[in-house]
C-alpha cells in the first residue's frame, strides 16, 4: 500500500515541461498584446500629429482660396472628396499653390517638402475621404505594356499624343508631356482628373490597367525610337513640315544648282 501511495503522489515526468510551456504562452501573449497596443497608440499619435501639422500648413497657405473647411470660394474650388491623391499630385508637382491665375495651373518646383505634402494630404483626407495616394505595388512598372499601350491609345492619346509627348488644347490649355513624370503622379492624375483631364476611377480603369499604362509610358521612355530622329513625337504635321521645308527645299536647291551649272 505504501508503494502504491508513493506512485500516486509522484509527479509525471512531463509536468515540468507543460508548466514551463504554459508560463511562456501567458508571458508571450501578454507581451504581444502590450506591444501591439503600444504600436497602435504610437501610430495613432503619429497620424494625429501629421494631421495637425497639415492643418497648420493648410490654414497658412491654402485656406484663403479653398476655405478652412474645404468649402472653396470664388478664388478656388472646394476640396470635399478630392482625397489625399489629388492633394499629393497638385502640391507635389508644384502646381499648387498657384503662382498666378491662368488657363491652367503650371508645373513648377514644389514649395513644400515631401513630409509637408503628406501632412497636407492627410489633413484634407481627414476632413473628407477620397482617393488615397497609390501604393508602391500599384505604380510599379511591372504590368503589361501591350495592354497599357492599347488603353493609352483609347483613353489618353487624343490629348497627350500616342507617344506621351503632350499636345495643345483650346483656350490656351494643353496636355503636358508624360516623359519623365513620376509614376505616382501619373496614377494620381488618372484618379483625380486635374485641369481638363477626365477622372478615371477604378471602375473606369482598374488599378491593374493603370499599372499597365504606367508600364507602357516607362517603356516609351526607356526605349527610344528605332527609326531615327523622332522630331519631337508630334506626329504627321511635324513630319510633313520637315519634308516640305528640308526635303522639297533640298530638291529645289539641287534643281537650281544643276540649271545654273548647265548654263
Number of contiguous helices = 11
- Low-confidence parts lasting 5 or more residues at pLDDT below 50? 35-46
Biggest β-sheet: strands ordered side by side in the sheet = 1-2
Strands, count: 2
Rounded Rg:
31 Å
Distance between the termini: 143 Å
Q: Can you put this structure into words, describing what you see?
A:
By secondary structure, the protein is an all-alpha fold. It folds into two domains: 31-131, Orthogonal Bundle (Cytochrome Bc1 Complex, Chain D, domain 2); 134-247, Cytochrome Bc1 Complex, Chain D, domain 2, CATH 1.10.760. The protein has helices spanning 2-9, 15-61, 63-66, 83-92, 114-127, 136-139, 145-155, 157-160, 183-192, 207-222, 236-262, and strands at 167-168, 174-175. Strands 1-2 form a two-stranded antiparallel ribbon. Helix 4 (83-92) packs antiparallel against helix 5 (114-127), helix 4 (83-92) crosses helix 9 and helix 7 packs across helix 10.
Which tags fit this structure?
263 residues; Cytochrome Bc1 Complex, Chain D, domain 2; 2 domains; two-stranded antiparallel ribbon; 11 helices; 2 strands; metal-binding
